[in-house]
Amino acid sequence: MKTDREPVPKLLELLAEPDPSLYRRLLRDARRSHRCPVLLNDVTLDRCDFEAIDENPALVDLDPRTVLSDWWAGPCLPDCPCDEPLAAELPPPVGLGRDLSRHRATIAAATGFARAAHGIARMGVVEVARPADVPLALRWSGMCNYGDRDLPRATAVLRSWEDRFGAVVSFVGPDTLLLSVARPPRSSEECRSVAAEHFAFCPDQVDPQVELRTTPIPLSEYAESIRGEFLWRFWWD
């Protein structure tokens, strides 16, 4: 059914419940049709900034490594209270040179997430070619408390994860992103590299995978928490 709310940029349809079969078809054909599925709720739509500049996701051409390096919080100062001070630079990236964004495992993982969300979230159809572009297209304001983070640069990072790990933006909450991950990191090197990227992307230094955690988590501990993890959660205070 069509949404009966105030029009949201690029939101073409809003269904009452996720439809896994439709979700799968839309995700598979999104590059051609520019009709991409995403799960969300009504509170999410209240956080769409209608006054924001209408950026075209197709025009985003930014280097994700440069973005993450700019956002990296290291190095920690000598008097930093961290149990594990951050290094001056991000670890070398992993998973380069592959494109899992349209792999059948990626589509299957995201569809499984949509199936599990029945009764919890609604399903939207957004006018974009890939899930990584959804927050920008909706003018989502979930990172608004961090002035150095803008949606075009976040889009570049989300595309990189979509390509390298089959990490699909599956749910957009008012201040939360949930990504289904088809090929999560497994080795210690991979996990530490990806963990550092997560820290740069979501800077609260509180474990974004554990909602109730209130104390900072060392990078090495966080790296272990995402080993083989098929769901990545990011939350901005």
From TrEMBL:
Record InterPro entries: DUF4253
Q: Which residues form the DUF4253 domain?
A: 122-237
What protein is this chain from?
DUF4253 domain-containing protein
Supply the source organism's classification: Bacteria, Bacillati, Actinomycetota, Actinomycetes, Pseudonocardiales
